[in-house]
């Protein structure tokens, strides 16, 4: 049994124990594990950097870019569905239409607030989404079988506010 760890470990830091028969682990494999534990393979040039902290920074970057990509894809889906003629869409009761607006814009607001984490940027995304919703409702006046509705804009605006609030609360 070999223990591979840095000296002076705190209880919350990573510790790896490798149990093996004689000769199973080469010195190169042990050196690779030591390198990973020091954080050198995850973007850090400083020896002794905690692997978990560096990994956390990467996770934040992944969340930010995931939120941005989700915002763009979600906005594209909302635009396409909002400007599709009503003959191509199933009919739902009016209350479900408002719930759809609320849920779609809440998801967009959440993705936008995750993708742009500062409060000012999240507010700018919220205003942009509100303007998108209003613009799409105006655009629906030009589509056969669709009509613009102020209640849809309000449901979307409430959804954006709840989505941004949820992201701020999770922080």
Shape field: elongated
Through-space gap between termini: 42 Å
- How many distinct beta strands? 2
Mean pLDDT across the residues is 77
Q: Unreliable stretches, pLDDT < 50, 5 or more residues? A: 5-23, 40-44, 49-54
What does the largest sheet look like?
2 strands, antiparallel
Strand content: under 5%
- Please count the helical segments: 5
Q: How are the strands of the largest sheet arranged?
A: 1-2
Order of helices and strands: EEHHHHH
Query: Level of helix content?
Result: 55-70%
Rg from C-alpha positions? 25 Å
Q: SS-based structural class?
A: mainly alpha
Task: Write up what this structure looks like.
It is a single chain. Residues 5-23, 40-44 and 49-54 have low confidence and may be disordered. 22% of the residues are buried. The protein has helices spanning 27-38, 51-82, 94-115, 119-140, 150-170; strands at residues 2-4, 16-18. It has 171 residues and is mainly alpha-helical. A two-stranded antiparallel ribbon has the order 1-2. The two termini are 42 Å apart.
Set out the fold topology.
Layout: E1 2-4, E2 16-18, H1 27-38, H2 51-82, H3 94-115, H4 119-140, H5 150-170
Antiparallel strand pairs: 1-2
Helix pairs in contact: 2-3, 3-4, 3-5, 4-5
